[in-house]
What does this fold into?
Amino acid sequence: SARGTTTNGVIPPVWPNSPNSWAIKFKMKKRENNFAYIDGANLYNGSKSLGWKLDYRRFRVWLKDKYSVERAYLFIGLVAKNKDLYTFLQEAGFTLVFKETVCGGDGKIKGNCDADLVLFTARDAYENTYKKAVIVSSDGDYASLVKFLCEKEKLRILLSPSKSKQCSILLKRTNAPIAYINDQRRVLELKRKNPQ
It folds into this structure.
């Protein structure tokens, strides 16, 4: 008789735990509840120094697909004229955390988000809000936070917007897993104009 049939010619059902079932062949990847904490200025300036422009929509989708990021906090200085940018980023799927800005002596607007990013990440870790954190920055000021997350086994990965040579040595010394956004240029480069 034909393979997989009974003597009366009837094909038997394939059960979920059968070696031949689709559930085994096409086992879906289990989603983790990971959160991303993004230094907005560092991401913008770092990716800009790479010589190509980051597509924030693609970046948000990539974070979810690659690292199971369910929520992505983007820490950014609040500037009234950037209203359209903030709307765009929110529509792209980021949760914005604003920091009041000041005008420095050189005339440049500054809004240091380091403390807020550290506070949010540590608080959520203690409250067990996420499974693991994805930190997006190449700033050595986050070295202590990265060490803390590694000790608690709460770090998924550190994503550096800068090339390896520009990524802080303090971060590298934590021995945390580091990936470089520049390696994903083919996937993340902006192909059309967005209000960035």
Summary: The helical segments are 22-25, 40-49, 56-67, 83-91, 114-126, 143-151, 169-172, 185-188. The radius of gyration is 22 Å. Residues 18-27 have pLDDT under 50 and may be disordered.
